[in-house]
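Worked example (supplementary).
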Amino acid sequence: MSKLKDIAQLTKVSVSTVSKVLNGKGRVSEKKRKEILRVARQLGYTPNYHARSMARKTKILTVGLIVPEIINPFFASLTRGVQKACGEDALVILMDSFRNLEREEKLIKNARFFGIDGIIIGNSRVSDDLVEEISGYIPVVVFDKFYELDNVVSIVLDNRYGAYMATRHLIENGCRNIVHLGGTHELYVSLERARGYEAAMNEVNLKPVVEPVGYNESAGYEAMKRLLDSGFQIDGVFCMNDLVAIGAIRALKEKSLRIPDDVAVVGFDDDEELCEIIEPPLSSVHQPVEEMGEVAAKLLFELIKGNSKIKRYVFTPRLVVRRSSLKKVKS
Amino acid sequence: MSKLKDIAQLTKVSVSTVSKVLNGKGRVSEKKRKEILRVARQLGYTPNYHARSMARKTKILTVGLIVPEIINPFFASLTRGVQKACGEDALVILMDSFRNLEREEKLIKNARFFGIDGIIIGNSRVSDDLVEEISGYIPVVVFDKFYELDNVVSIVLDNRYGAYMATRHLIENGCRNIVHLGGTHELYVSLERARGYEAAMNEVNLKPVVEPVGYNESAGYEAMKRLLDSGFQIDGVFCMNDLVAIGAIRALKEKSLRIPDDVAVVGFDDDEELCEIIEPPLSSVHQPVEEMGEVAAKLLFELIKGNSKIKRYVFTPRLVVRRSSLKKVKS
DNA sequence: TACTGTAGATCAAACGTTTTCCCAAGCTTC
DNA sequence: GAAGCTTGGGAAAACGTTTGATCTACAGTA
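After joint prediction of all chains, the assembly is encoded as:
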């Protein structure tokens, strides 16, 4: 790596002159200027970022974004939102934990040593202690969980309301025996969704039935199959996410049940690519993920600047109705 | 931001002593050590990354990864591969250009000022001049295109061979009137795919028919519909990507054509989530995207270290056969 | 001649660490 | 009681820039 000094020696001027030419400041004779630029280009000189950041006291903002897996469309959208908010003004250091909690905690712990000015934690499985610890050093934005800490702001989606809405929708479409695939997991969000489902059911004196399920397509398939095989009477299914819903649909089709006429189905997350391609197109609760990422970044900037007015930001989901939940005969 | 000096003053010792304690080096009395650690914690002290990088001459490796859109599963997988190769040893700065070529070029141009040691460019639409320029300053890994430059290595997928394989497969399954949806675009890869298709067709004296198409589902649907409405006789379709294939399938179903018995379909990219959920499951040419990302990062490291042995790395795709291309009656 | 102005270039401090070298005091040891 | 160790601690250089202050010619002016 060449440095200013190298250029200075080759052109027989001082370091400061070189610096001035390269930054277009001060007055330097046309002759030297040309020569300096020539040599700099020839050497492939790039200013040392660290030295520069030190000397000017103004460095470029850098935010760390920690996600459990970038290939999950949810986190990809989140990332996109964060990037959007950063624009030209901030760098995004992406850290994928590959769903490895240990790695994730290590990444979070080390983040502050990498010149990161603030950190966005994409999922809610990290321990409260860790959030508290790290927030003692750098500002943090977390999702789905609220913290009473100075240096932390939370972005939450009203999962309970989303689930409530979806269940109400099924009820209003004439479903009476509605099951929920979900509710397991240590995950806070899936518990919230189960609660919203139960609230809607209880409101109209229907009995909630929650069937535990994993989070992918085959888990949805298996769970639905279990329920059907056990002879359960079902005319509506609310699933904790779209993949589970798609698995459930496969199981339903296998039993020659018609969707939505025999059984209506609603998912959660609204992965458009999936929902619109499946047959029939899947109704789903939409989270404004990209917008959430954008807001996360903006709030982080505020936190970094020291204007921490907001401690919590709640997003309200909306229901996207497609064919999978629209029975022909309305009640 | 607190610094070593602050801690030193509060504990009435020298800066060097504080540094030694915080780094666990040198010998310091237990009493001072405790006190220094206490104050450091209380102040929420974090070492200045830039100052540290300067003083030690060993900074952490930082790679810039430029993608046209992270929400595209292809680039998400690529990112994952890059992350994997980076492990604990390197930071990934992700830059999404939102499919805006201008922004992309600006990002690439500026990358070297951000302490980035090397850059991975995720798509092949950037100008050759830019690649040449930037490679004069930092190492570059690009995809899909070969450059005769010192500081550049290319990762290419043998698109032509993938397309050839897919087309051969259709032929061997008894298709004779095979069309290709693709071949438009300035994109090098889609041209390559069209060439592979043509090669396979010509080899057995079948007439290639290439129908121009965009790159999403509705583009595939429209293109297929155009062909069917024009009364074309078709018993096989090879599509330039999976989304186009899914659109084509929708158009075929609309005309009550059975897949694969009336028309066999093969896609490209093998987006598993999509291919396995669609009915019938879609055969597709698989690119080892994640692995490509991994190799890209590894080759970049070599380049940064100065061991630039390899200039080009070719991946061979493989065909994943699912139901959409398996006619019952084999020829 | 002496003064002022100015273009062109350099000096030196500063940014926050790390790390090598050095010093002082106290302790052994013969 | 001098020589040698050990322990605890500080001074200062170095990392590569930036930037305000300063210096030097030399031209113009009175």
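Two points are worth noting when inspecting this output. The longest strand of chain B covers residues 61-67. Chain B has 13 helices and twelve strands.
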